[in-house]
Structures are given as C-alpha cells and as structure tokens.
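Example with several molecule types.
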Amino acid sequence: MAVTVRQQISARKRSTPRKLAWLIGNYILLVILAIFFLFPIVFMVVSSLKSNEEQLLSDLSSLKAFIPYGTISLGNYSGVFARLPFGQYMFNSVFIVTMIVVFGLFVNSLIAYALARMNFPGRRLMLAVMIALIIVPFESIAVPLLLMVNNLPWFDGSTTWIDSYQVQIIPFIADAFSIFLFYQFFIGIPKELEEAALVDGASRFRMYWRLIVPLSRPVFATVAILQFLTHIGDFLWPLMVTTGDTFRPLMIGLQVFFGQQPRSWGEIMAFASMITIPILIVFLLFQRWFMQSVASTGIKG
Amino acid sequence: MSAETTITAEKARATSGKPRTTSWQRKEMLTAWTFLLPASLLLLIFLIIPFFMAIYFSFTNQTLIPGPIPTEFVGFRNFARLLQDDTFHRALLNNFLFGIIVVPVQTTFALSLAILANQKIRGIYVFRTIYFSPVVTTIAVISVVWSFLYNPDQGLINHFLKSISFGHIPNLQWLNDVHLALPAIIIMSIWQGVGFQMMIYLAGLQGIPDSLYEAARVDGAGRWKQFLNVTLPQLRNTTIFVVIATTILAFKLYTQVAIMTQGGPENATITSVYYLVQQGFSELHVGYASAIAVIFFLIVLVISILQRTIIKEEGQG
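Resulting structure tokens for the full complex:
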C-alpha cells in the first residue's frame, strides 16, 4: 500500500506537463459539450430579446444569432401579453402542479407508511398491486379516463370535469412510483424509534407526523421534485381536457400560440423563455436536490 | 440507548396483557385503513378502473360521443383490423426505429458524460448542471425551439451545416422531409434526455468502491482495462435500468411529434401513442384506440418483465 502511494506520487511528479495537457484537453471537451447543451437555450433567450423580426431572421446565418445586439427590448414579451392571457396560463400551471405535489406528498407517504410499518390483512397483496401499477403507462388509460371524467359530477353542480382544475389535479395525486419511493425509504428507518414513541402513548398519526416526516425530508424532496418535473411538462392530458384559456396550462398555451399564423418567432421565443427561465431558476436554487432525485430513480429501479 | 428503549417497549407490551393488545390491534387496523384509503381510492378510480375499461372497450365499438349506433361487443374485430392497419404498423415501426437508435446512442453518450463529469476537477459541478439543464426544460418548449432550429430556410442548423461545409450541404428540409423528420426528432430527444441518464450513471459510478480500482491498479491495469474490468461490470444493473427506461420512453413518444410534425410527413413520424390519441380523441373511435392501448401496454409490460428477470438473475448469480 505504502509502496503504491509512493509510486503514484513519483508518477505524478514525473508527468506534470502531460497531466497539464490532459487537464486542458479535458476542459476543452467539457466546454464543447457545454456549448452543445446550452446553445438552444441561449438562442431562445437571445432571440426573444430581438424585437425586430427581420434582424432576428437575418442574424440566423451567423454567430450573431447568439449575440443580443441591435434592437434589444422586451417588445416580444409585451407582444405575448397583448395576444394571450399568459398570466392566466402561468397561474394555472403553478396552481395545478402545486396541488398535485402537496396533496401527493401527503396521500402517498401516508399509504407508504401503513404499508411499511403497520399490520393489516392484505398488506402483501396491496404492496404487490402497488408495484405492478408502476408499470401501467398513463398513455394506455388516457382515453377511457377521458370518457370517465366527462361524466363525473362536481360540487358546483356541473356534470362533467372537462375544462376544470380538478380534472388536471385529482387523477395525478396518488402515484404508485411515489408510494414505492416512500416505502423504500420508510423500511430503512430503525423501528426502535417508533417503539419508544409507542410506549409514550403516541398515536400512529402523531408518530407519522412528528417522527417519520421530519426524518424523511430527503425522500419528500425527491418525490416533490420528480412530480414537479413530470407534471409541469404535462401535455397530452391537458390537451384532451381543456377547451378554453380559463384552465389551460402553459404548455398547451405555447402549442396554441405556436400554431397561430402569421408566426412571430420573436414572440414565440419570448413565450418559451418565460416558461423556461423560472423553472431554470428553481432548478439552480435546488440543483443538488434535483440531481440527487433523478439519480435515486435509477438506484431504486 | 436504542437497545434499552426496545427492551422497555417489549416489557411494556408484555405487561399490558391480552385484552389490551387486541383493542390496540383493532385500533391499529382502523388507523391503517384510514392511512391506506385516500391513495387506494384515487388509484382505484383513476388508474385501475380506466385500465380495465380500456381492456373492455378494446372488444367493443365504443365511441367518445354517444352516436346513433349502440355500443356492441365486437370480439376481436378491433385487433384484427389493427393487424391490417398500415398506419399502425408504421407507428410501431417508428417506435422501434426510435428505440433502436436512441437506446444505444443515448446510453453510450450518457455513460461517457457521466465519466467526464465524475472527475474531481475544479468547476465540474458547473458542467454537470449545464449538461442536466435540458432535462428541466420542458419537452414542449424544446420542441418549439428546435422547430425553429430545424426550419429549412431560417433555421440555425441549416445555416451552420452550410458554413462548415462551405455551401456543399444543400438546404435540408428536416421536419418536412420523409427521411429526415424522424432522425431530427431523435437528435433532439437525445439532446434533451441524456442529462437524466448521466445523473443515474453518476450515482452508479459513485457507488463503485475505490478499493476495486486500487486492486486493479495493483494488478497493473491501465485506465482502459480498469474501465472494462471494473467500471462496466459494476454498472451492469444501472445499465439495465437505463436501457429499459429509455426503451419504454421510446414507446411513449408523443409530445415532440404532436408539436413538431403532427405525425407527418406521410406518417414518417407517427407513433403508437400519437395514433392512439388520434383515433380515440380526434376520430372518437374509443374501441379502436383502446385496442391500440392494450397492445401498447402489453409491449411496455413485456419490457418491464424483461428488466426484472435480468436483474433478478444477477442477484442470484
């Protein structure tokens, strides 16, 4: 062991110039890849700032496409607001996703807690069903679900869920994969902690709320982030169940705007930027959590 | 400390006597059902029931809006029609083509990125974040932006190709070209999805014990040998997961197609889910769409079972 360390040290000393070349080559590769992943996003934001559509289009033939110059203004942004209820779309998206995440965290962690810790007949069967449900792709049930929600009553007296918030929220609250992630985490928590609390006469709900939830922050963050990423981008279902601007989320608004003629690329890029920039900011604030969450889907698969 | 509390807990339970245990058990069961109820009910109504509805509808001529013809049981007619439906064949073929190209390319790319991003050098977190950023950009936004990039006359990609080839590459029609539309969507999907798998591979790489590499170095293995004999075998389960997850995603391909090409030109980019939605939602043929859904589900099921069997074999071996 000592010998190998000494060998390594001497090897490092000997090859300093080679190592430097390797490092520089490494960074060049990393930067090229960074450009590859960033260029469409930079292009989108830069184009959105060019309020002169002719300049925007003529810049495309050179690197000028990535340089904010010329008539730079927020004209395209105000153009979007003038043509579409962007604020309404934004509110709808934020509201729908928040509701899915908040109710989902509660409902899915509760059932996972019962599955992981409590004794009741049918526990094993229920667990098996839950794991089987992970496989069912939403796409395969979308059409019958549409038929079903079309005929569901709601508290306000309406006889259909089409064009509403609840139709975009309630079907997605319970999620088999989230339950599985919670379950995996809960069975790893030492039982002794709960036994002590049981002796103190704590109720199961109190135990869940006071003991399990604070201990399980990482898995709550993971599930929240994964559900957020999934549902902020939802496209197929809102396309089927919304008919007007009132309940439409951002993605459908974008598609509608994209389809309108004549196309103003500057305004389309402004719309796309207004969706992307807030999400990117949230991502940058919690990037470690985001990346860990994604990584955990693979480990637990 | 924890051992002591366990003992006290045992003692408490032992001294509490039988009748109290049963009432405690009854209460425990009631609580369990309260915890289980909300999620179970939601899954039953919005997942399990629609799933069986899909199977049932696939044997009927159900329509989305009640029509003049009453809904009837038609046996396997929908499936028989699917067997002869050229559009459906094309959709399946496109899913397969998409998978056959995306799975190996994206997996290799993701692993290479993960190895690059796993180096302990200054600023590596910045690069990791950049490579991951397309994942948090929604697919609808990406489809719109890339439609602009692919635009034949105004698009950046054609201008770029023209300048690096000194004008030798002609104006490609990309999304309007029967042969290029699917590859165009493939390139974009890899660009968007590879960061996700890079993170999964990174987690896998970080799970490999350093001692294995040390042992390999002692045996005189160079970087390449270490990669072949340590890294790859240790990443076996990660790779299985990545490959299977990407294959399933290939079959779910929808949003890109809906925004960029609407399945065209001449069905060059139509996919099973796109065709399913077209039949069930636009054409109102719920029965026929459900038959597509059942086949689509069976494909996903077979892929998932394959994954579990392969990973289980590994566990036993």
